[in-house]
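#struct-help
A.M.: can someone run this one for me? Single chain, 212 residues.
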Amino acid sequence: MRDRLIAVAVMLAGSVLAPACANAPRAYRAHAADPELLHQAVHQLTEVMVYDIFSPPQASRAYAYTSVAAYEALRPDYPEYRTLAGQLNGLTPVPAPAADSEYYLPLASVHAFMTVGRALTFSRARMDSARTAMEDGMRRLGIPARVFRRSIAYGDRVAQHILAWAAQDHYLQTRGYPKYSVTAEPGRWIPTPPAYMDAIEPHWGELRPFVM
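D.P.: on it. Structure tokens below:
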């Protein structure tokens, strides 16, 4: 009788624990809606741009492209949100994740953000360190190795698509343009006190606009 009761107890315990064990590998998905990792990515990018002494216009460009990359990599998890392709000038349809494969798109999103940020800044070793630390933290959530690798690869695809789009905005060409010339012509900008700084990005208006 005692052995029979033990057997029944084991069976009942198994019936309770089996679903929990089956769901355990997916526990990492409870963090999917947590924006903290993306906030950390933005903070890391900001620190690198401060270190690199980016001007405000340069920083705005980096923020824009990294944010579009993060949005497009995460968007397939939210079908009610529209892609920015066709809405932003020159942005063609972004690669989609394979329908028959599992991804963790918050990881893909952060990876795409950091990859684009790395390409648009100078201190790439700092961006690499920050990205590695963030991805190590996400790995500790228990994301299965295959899902992790697949998500990183998808984030890379999105990042490369965004970088190819960014490369066509005429920014690089303006790096070789002449500096702003200060003249006495009425109506032209002149340096003002107290710093009497040089004009910042006088050719910025020649870059491709995002929506106009």
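A.M.: thanks! The domain at 29-168 is CATH 1.20.144 (Vanadium-containing Chloroperoxidase; domain 1).
D.P.: also worth noting: Helices lie at 2-23, 36-51, 56-74, 105-120, 124-139, 145-166, 171-174.
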